[in-house]
Amino acid sequence: MPKKAGIIMVILGVVLILSALLLFYYNRLEDDAAGQEAENLLSQVQAVIRDSSVSPLPSETIPDATEIPGETVETEPVEIDPTMTIVTINGYEYIGYLSIPSLYKELPVMADWDYARLNTAPCRHFGSTKTDDLVIAAHNYQSHFGRLREMKVGDEVIFTDMDGAAIRYQVSETGTVAPSDVDAVVNSGHDLVLYTCTPGGQTRVCVFCDRVTEAQ
Amino acid sequence: MKKYLKKVPAAILALLLLVSLLPVTALAATDVQVRLPVSVVTKAEEAEDIPADAVYQFKLTAQDGAPMPEEGPYLSVTGAVEAKFSPITYTHAGIYQYTLVMVAGDHNRATYDKTVYNVKVTVTNEGNGLKPQVAIREQGGDDDKKFDSADFVVAYSPLMKDVTVQKVWKGSDTHPLSVQVDLLVGEEVVGTATLNARNNWTYTWEQLVQKRDNSWKVKEKPVRGKFVASYGYNYDKSIATVTNTYTSDLIQTGQLNWPIPVLCSLGTALVVFGLYMIFKKRDDACA
């Protein structure tokens, strides 16, 4: 009887190990597919930016910031217009692409996020380059932000918007935050924040960047 | 004839008496008048900060019963001008002393000069009439320094404006019943407002921000719930809108990796323990 139990335990153990291998393999495939997809989209985004004949660009709809219920107020243009130019490619809207030289990565950035989009490319979670509060989230695929934790203070990050303006940033701070600490990311005071999950998914790796001024 | 001769000495005496009185009446005819000069200088960052119709008032106080201006101890002027008190008449030689001050007005942006001037009018009789000499000195200042007039400076702080904050909730019908918003000028909190449904989620701070200062901002105090505040301002930066958008946790951006080490560890443990049980049985059987 103990022999049978031993055999069952060995079989069960092998099944678990195989499951782990299969999951690892699936994740690798998913990672590769996401990387390939992002690469294809990147070339399209870059082509759109290069192609001056393409007339952009339906500007995004910004919520009327002066509207409050039950009260008629002036709808004057806001002083700092956060509107970024967006371009729709294959049904998805893009605000530009991200270049991270230290990781040898270039990735397109979608204008909005949902999990389907995140499987394809990094997404804007919040903000705008115009208001210097852009927050970009991406999966921790190796082909996306999986190596974000390797970034160091001083590393360069370049965001090129759909108008072709390349905005240079420098990493000011890195760290991890709890998933519930939305404010620490969205109102960080930094001009650009990149974040992704830690390998276990329990916290978020954040890279806080600030614009590089001409003097720098 | 004798009768007339008797009257001559009396006439001469009367004449002499008249002549002796003449200088007195001549002196009275040369009373001197003095008008004390004052001036107002206004200072501000910009000309528009200075109200054109501002009225400034000065007060002269006599010491030891010195003569006062005909129109009284106060002088009022409009705007930054040079002016003079109404005439003060001196009938006798002497030294007359006064203090001269600006009366603080009630303009809320003005800082009035608190300088006290000591005014000394020295009237001398130099034979051909009275001559005045005016010396104006700053009280507590250098005694050797005399001023041509009593100069007062009124400094105006910049014009102020009203600014309004309003609140917008997005993404959730359930939100806190009130929020507090600070008004910051530079890094200093100059006002705090509570916004709620009773004030229609809007509040106006009156005259707390300089008219030309567009560096002011609002900052919401932390709000319960998963709301992210964003800030917008209208074209002339007189209205701030704080939009609180419901945001769930930061996005779950991880692959399902954590089961891999768990499954591997558990599987390895089971295999090892299973093999142990199998070979332990065999060893027992051999024994």
Question: How does this structure look, described?
Answer:
- The complex is a heterodimer of chains A (216) and B (287).
- With 216 residues, chain A is α+β, with helices and mostly antiparallel strands.
- Chain A contains 3 helices and 9 strands, in the order H-E-E-E-H-E-E-E-E-H-E-E.
- In chain A, strands 1, 2, 3, 4, 5, 6, 7, 8 and 9 form a 9-stranded mixed sheet that branches.
- Chain A starts with a helix and ends in a 5-residue tail after the last strand.
- Chain B folds into 2 domains: 28-156, Immunoglobulin-like (Sandwich), CATH 2.60.40; 160-246, Collagen-binding surface protein Cna, B-type domain (Immunoglobulin-like), CATH 2.60.40.1140.
- Chain B starts with a helix and ends with a helix.
- In chain B, 23% of the residues are buried.
- Residues 16-27 of chain B have low confidence and may be disordered.
- At the A-B interface, helix 1, strand 4, helix 3 and strand 8 of A face strand 12, strand 17, strand 18 and helix 2 of B.
